[in-house]
Amino acid sequence: MNPVKYQETYRIASARFAGWDYGSNAAYFITICTQNRAHAFGEVIDGKVSLTLLGQAAWDCWNAIPEHFPFVVLDEFVAMPNHVHGIVVIDKPPPANVTHANNANDANANVETQNFASLHLGLRSRVTQRRSVNQFGPQSQNLASIVRGFKIGVTKYARCHQIPFAWQPRYHDHIIRNAAEHEHIRKYIIENPQKWAADCFYESK
Questions:
Q1: Is residue 184 one of the residues assigned to a domain?
Q2: Does residue 107 lie within any of the structural domains?
Q3: pLDDT tens digit string along 28-60?
Q4: Of the residues 110, 125, 139, 193, which has the maximum number of CB atoms within 10 A of its CB?
């Protein structure tokens, strides 16, 4: 896979997709860069990321997302030297007053997301379901609030440990449209450390 072509094809700039409800059920591929692409999270050595303390904190904050947003299911994630990639699945239960008609097509039904994209129910079987009680009161229930909470967590760790750090203000997102695309993006995230030198985010330290 050509990483540059992949970026051009599958990444959407952080200006949101017009008309899309980013609080709706779907799988989202997100990329967040450090300010000036500084190598804050570690270095790639022999195809693996050797994490700094802040890089480990990024992993910890990622894994803690469902503690603050119980409707979120986490999928693949990686902290690269100057950015992170991850897949967030928003999986809110339907309203209690909504009834679903029983028919022969239900077994193959998709979770429809505003007649634009659909999150195949089969995706969920590939993702570890993590649920917990929200201990922090009401939260905005959309992708921007999830990303903002993650960024705040990492920034707070850096400040508490006196580590110079800042995020790039914007982030990239892509709405994952089907199971094949989901697997393609998962593969990209997993292989990112091995292909670091060819990545469009690559910058030597």
A1: yes
A2: no
A3: 999 999 999 999 999 999 999 999 999 999 999
A4: 193
> pTM of this prediction?
0.73
Report residue 116: phi and psi, to 5°. -115, -50
- AA letter at 171: Y
Find all residues with CB under 8 Å of 57, minimum gap 6, and list them: 153, 154, 157, 158
pLDDT band of residue 201 (cuts 50, 70, 90) is confident
Cβ distance 55 to 38 under 8 Å? no
The verdict on residue 100 lying in a domain is no
Domain that holds residue 78: 3-94+114-198
- We report the CATH number of the domain holding residue 168 as 3.30.70.1290
Q: For residues 55 and 101, what is the distance between their CA atoms, to the nearest angstrom?
A: 47
Closest-CA residue to 200 (of 78, 75, 31) = 31
